Structure formats: structure tokens, C-alpha cells
Amino acid sequence: KSKADKKGQYLFYNNLISVQIMRKMEIQHELARALERGELSVHYQPQMSMREEKLVGVEALARWFHPSLGNVFPDEFISVAEESGMIHDLDLFVFRRACEDLYALSSNGEGALKLSVNISPVQLTEPEFFCDLVDICTSVGIAPERITLEITENVFIHGFDIVKPLFAKLRQQGFGLSLDDFGTGYSSLSYINSLPLTEIKIDRSFINKFLDFYQSDMLVRMIVGIGRLCGLVVVAEGVETKSQLDKLLNYDCDLVQGYYFDRPLTIEQLSEKVELCKE
Ligand code: C2E
Ligand code: MG
Ligand code: MG
Ligand code: MG
């Protein structure tokens, strides 16, 4: 390549990187104000029980609508929030709002919808965070037993010995504990029975492929098998087709979540759905 070509390439990548950095800075700057301005909201994606074929719970997912940037999605803003420390307020906002919404939908009785909330691994080592969760449950009046905290495998960057007592403490309070995006990161099979987990959630990337690729298929089958043998609830996320659903039913998976049933819904849409299910 000529010298000019190389220089052009260099400038191209250099500009690309600047654009990415500027976008990130903008996100960070705007996110700091998003909470106060009421730009953040929470959507709820239904989780269906495979065997009873009914709605049993929802996963709360953060949503951000910015007046000029439009919809910004969690895959972009969660990592920014984690790096800048804003994740603390963000996760607590989502947790509180979700508890309030679910409590309003139905109080704690028999058959009440379960709630899953994502908790950043960054949070888990913050001592006051634990108390904050319990305080919110008490003030809203929702039982921690109704709530499952979803934590990704990335939590193990903290090291197993740090994570284990934190998990134990959360379990003692009654929260369910789910290992989210299972199979993608730091997971080790030994974690499954040496941690007080209640649930594992098979990552969407496996569900995407398992009809077409033998390896993914075997992996999904194995994860469901091991999870069930260890007495855990096994959830499949990202289910988009009937064939995927049928196969998961065959493997005896407990819960499914995905566009095949519903996209994440506003609380109003969820209420309507719950009403329809009652009839
Ligand atoms: P996740 O916890 O694994 O959530 C599942 C993601 O898959 C959600 O993306 C959901 O909208 C999407 N999804 C569900 N079903 C389907 C499907 O059938 N097909 C496809 N293609 N996608 C599906 P979302 O809402 O964009 O969230 C992305 C990630 O951001 C979440 O992954 C979670 O790790 C994180 N996140 C979202 N809200 C929060 C929050 O309040 N706090 C924290 N710490 N993390 C959050
Ligand atoms: Mg999740
Ligand atoms: Mg997941
Ligand atoms: Mg994920």
C-alpha cells in the first residue's frame, strides 16, 4: 500500500474511535441527568411456565428515552453507568419502580406474579446496597420471596470467595438468585452446587442457534439437565419461535421468555395482559 493509503486508513480509524468516544461521553453526560428528568422507565417481559403454559412472572428491564437521542438501549448505557458509578442509582430506581408496579398489580398472595430484576455485578460488593434492597421491599410491602435477583456470570471477576457470602446473605433475606447469561462467561459447573442459587438463565446466544447447531443443542440440553438435577429453576431467554419452544419443552425447561410470547411491555400493557389471563 502507498503511504497515502496508509495515512487514509489511519485517519479513518482515528475518526471512528473519536466518534465512539464522543458518543460515550455524551451518553455519560446525559445519563447523569436522566433520572432527575424522569427519562428512565421500566418495561416488563413476561416469563411463561412451560408445563402450566401460563404467565408466572416478569423481568424488569430499564428503558431510556432521551428527547434528542431517542431510545438508548441498556446494552449501551448500562456499561457506561457501571464505569461512572451511576449504576447504583439506576439499579435502585429500577428495583423500586418494579416493586411498586408489581405490588400495585397484585399484593403478595397466592398466584401473585414473580419479579426478576437485574443487578449489576459492580453493585454486589457495595455494603449499603444490600440494606437498600431490603429497605425498599419493606417500604413497598413486597415480600423478598417474590423477587429474583438476576446477576450475570461477570460477578465472578470479584472471585468466588467474595461472591459466596454475599449470595448467602441475599438468600437469607428471602431473595431468589439467578445466574443470568449462563454459559457465556466466567461460569464453572462447580458454582452451580456450591452457591445458594435458585435459578439459571440460559443465554439467548445458545437459544438462537440450538436448532441449527449440534454443539449448542447439546449445551442447552446439558444445562437444562444439570440445572434440574440440582433443583434449580431453568429459564430460557430469547425464545422466538414455536420450534424452539417445543424443543425446550422436550428438554423439560421450566420457564421461557422471549419475543415468541411478548416483547418487554409497559406496565399498562402488562396490566391488560394480566386481566386477559384472568378471564
Ligand atoms: P438480560 O438481563 O439478559 O435481558 C434479556 C435481554 O434480551 C433484554 O434486552 C430483552 O429485551 C432481550 N430479549 C428478550 N427476549 C428476546 C428475544 O426473543 N429476542 C431478542 N433478540 N431479544 C430478546 P435489553 O432490555 O436490551 O437488556 C440488555 C441487557 O442489559 C440485559 O440483559 C441486562 O443484562 C442489562 N439490563 C437491562 N436492564 C437493566 C437494569 O435495570 N440493571 C442492570 N444492571 N442491567 C440491566
Ligand atoms: Mg436478565
Ligand atoms: Mg440474560
Ligand atoms: Mg444479557
TrEMBL record:
Residue numbers of the full-length protein present here: 552 to 830 of 830
Domain EAL: 24-278
The name this protein goes by in its record: EAL domain-containing protein
Keywords: Coiled coil, Membrane, Transmembrane, Transmembrane helix
